[in-house]
Write a structure and sequence with these properties.
The complex is a heterodimer.
Chain A: E1 4-7, E2 10-13, E3 19-25, E4 33-38, E5 45-49, E6 53-54, E7 62-67, E8 70-75, E9 84-90, E10 98-99, E11 103-107
Parallel strand pairs in A: 2-11
Antiparallel strand pairs in A: 1-3, 3-8, 4-5, 4-9, 5-6, 7-8, 9-10, 9-11
Chain B: E1 3-7, E2 10-12, E3 18-25, E4 33-39, E5 45-51, E6 58-60, E7 68-73, E8 78-83, E9 92-99, E10 107-108, E11 112-116
Parallel strand pairs in B: 2-11
Antiparallel strand pairs in B: 1-3, 3-8, 4-5, 4-9, 5-6, 7-8, 9-10, 9-11
The chains are: A mainly beta, B mainly beta.
Amino acid sequence: EVVMTQSPGTLSVSPGERGTLSCRASQSVSSNVAWYQQKPGQAPRLLIYDASTRATGIPDRFSGGGSVTEFTLTISSLQSEDSAVYYCQQYSNWPPITFGQGTRLEIK
Amino acid sequence: QVQLVESGGGVVQPGGSLRLSCAASGFAFSTYATHWVRQAPGKGLEWVAFTRYGGNDKYYADSVRGRFTISRDNSKNTLYLQMNSLRAEDTAVYYCAVSDSGSHFEIWGQGTLVTVSS
C-alpha cells in the first residue's frame, strides 16, 4: 500500500500571501496524484489531477507540481475562502487508492 | 445539473446491515467508473470500494472486503453499497464519487451518515 504523508499538519498564512502544501509518497506514483479541498460540512472538491492539471472551474491561483514521490500544491494570493482542509491522493498503485492525512489551511 | 445524491444512511446496531444508494443525474453515468469513499467523524478520507463502468471489475479496501458489496444499475443511474456485519469503526459519512479516465474523483455526492451503535 502506498502511504501518502502530508506536511505541515496546519498552515497559517496571511491573506494575499502564498501557501505551499507538501505530499510525499512512500514509493513512486509517477504523476498520478490529485488534490482536494474540503470545507466543514461539505464534500471534497477536486482541485488538481495528474499532479499539475487544474480541474474544471478551479482558479489559476491553485497550481500543482512534482512527480515520482514529491508533490506540492501552491495557492498564490490566498483568500479567506481558501480556508479548508486539503488532501492529496494517489491513484498509481491501487487498490487501494490512498489519501494523505490532510493539511489544515488557516487564513490569519 | 451534474449531481450525485446519496441516501440510505442511518443508525444501525453492530452486526446489522444497511444499503446505501447514490443517484446520478446530469451526466452520462454509465460511462464513469464509480467509488465509495468514507470519512469517520473528525478524520480523513478513506477509499472503500470501486466498480468499473459495466459493474464487472470490483475492488475493496481490506477493512471492508467480505462485508461490503458494491454494485450499480446503469439503467437507473444508481450506485449501491450493501454493508453487512457492520462494526463501530464503520461509523462515517459515506460519499459516492465518479472518475472518468483516471481514478481521481471528479464528482462527489454530499454524503450520507452511517452510525453503528448499540
